[in-house]
Amino acid sequence: MAKITFMGAGSTVFVRNIIGDCMLAEPLFDAEIALYDIDAARLRESKAMLDVLNANINKGRAKITAHLGVKQRKAALKGAGYVVNAIQVGGYDPCTITDFEIPKRFGLRQTIADTLGIGGIFRTLRTLPVMLDFARDIEAVCPGAWFLNYSNPMAMLTGGLLRGSGVKAVGLCHSVQCVHHTVIQNAGLDKKYPVHECRALVAGINHMGWLLKLEHKGRDIYPEVKRECAKVLKKHRGGEKHWDLVRLEMMARFGCYVTESSEHNAEYLPYFIKKNYPGLVDEYHIPLDEYPRRCVNQIAEWKKMSKDIVGNPNLTHRRTGEYGSYIIEAIESGKPCQIGGNVINNGCITNLPRNACVEIPCLVDRNGVQGTFVGDLPEPLAALNRTNINPQLLTIEAVLEKRKDRIYQAAMLDPHTSAELSLDDIVKMCDALIAAHGDWMPKFK
Questions:
Q1: What is the rounded CA–CA span in Å between residue 320 and residue 312?
Q2: What pLDDT band is residue 422 in, cutting at 50, 70 and 90?
Q3: 317 an active-site residue?
Q4: Which CATH architecture has domain 3-173?
Q5: Residues 67, 174, 317, 437: which is the catalytic one?
Q6: Nearest residue to 7 via CA among 167, 164, 116, 122
Q7: From CA 206, how far away is CA 171, in angstroms rounded?
Q8: Were both Cys, which of 87, 241, 339, 397 would link to 323 (CB 3.0–4.6 Å)?
């Protein structure tokens, strides 16, 4: 019987997706589910929701327990074969607000700030130490467990966990599954090329993985898709609003479509959000301060949704495309599957650093998650990845070695930050963020 521990179980909708998926996988019907969180109210809601779901779709076969706070963490983890992680340290208020408002004082604007940039760096600085605490508990009470990380910044957290502990881990993102569907939709070719008939190869780093190949029934359709997307870009740039112009521009300039959305990629690059060229934000329809708006809306929406999800005795579920349940099922049953996972490179992508966390096709079976060999990326794409990998590696070192100079250096090498601010202002901004975060972060030397 598999035991699955969910860290950050107060994320009720996501718990429903991951654990609900597991309840629909035959090898996991009778799994033990341990829910862990530090928010008592949200933990109760998730437990109540899963109890109903367990009865309605799984004949009550799963055993579900709830564990609150640090003192109960080892009990939640004890004997687990799988640990799903979805924590967000510091939440919207105060930490997300801080990540946006202090950089804004220095003239540095962001959109999402959860993956790279100054916001991604500081989210790592407060989150990775907590995950390393989890790792120490895992090594003590369930040393063979697989850690499935869904928290951002994906590359820095997964890479930092793998470098700073002996835990087996893979990082999982939603964007790999849908990237080929999205670009085909952008091209207006989704009826001609149904997504279930297409094959794609994606590799790179999280949120900057590249759609390298796109085939329909064995035929290369990428040139046609690119031609149609170029027409869309020409039509909409600076005119009628379109939601994906940054990605279409980057594909036109560098040759491949990228996994994560335009609002994300706008802040991973030095080209689009610029004080000296403010018209670019309007030209490419870039939603500055987008993530704080989403947080406010999600908090309000949850108040409406909670009754439908938590208080619904008829709640049901259909299996989603999230990788988590498929990984656990493959390891338990031996029936293999393929995923797009975040793992340490170790030569899988030959023109990216070996110690980088890369997002590549992975095979999963009883042996666990194994990255596959990709070889060289096209050099322009590898070069763009490396500009993002540099601050990732330095941020990981900042946490593992408690070095403040690595925080400054990570920010100085971030593409967007370094394009906008002087070295002195970067240091001043980092110091202001360190002071504002207070006890949400460890002390750095």
A1: 20
A2: very high
A3: no
A4: Alpha-Beta Complex (3.90)
A5: 174
A6: 167
A7: 9
A8: 339
pLDDT in tens, 84-114: 999 999 999 999 999 999 999 999 999 999 9
The token duo for 155 is 């590359």
The ranges assigned to domains in the chain are: 3-173
> If you average pLDDT over every residue of the chain, what do you get?
97
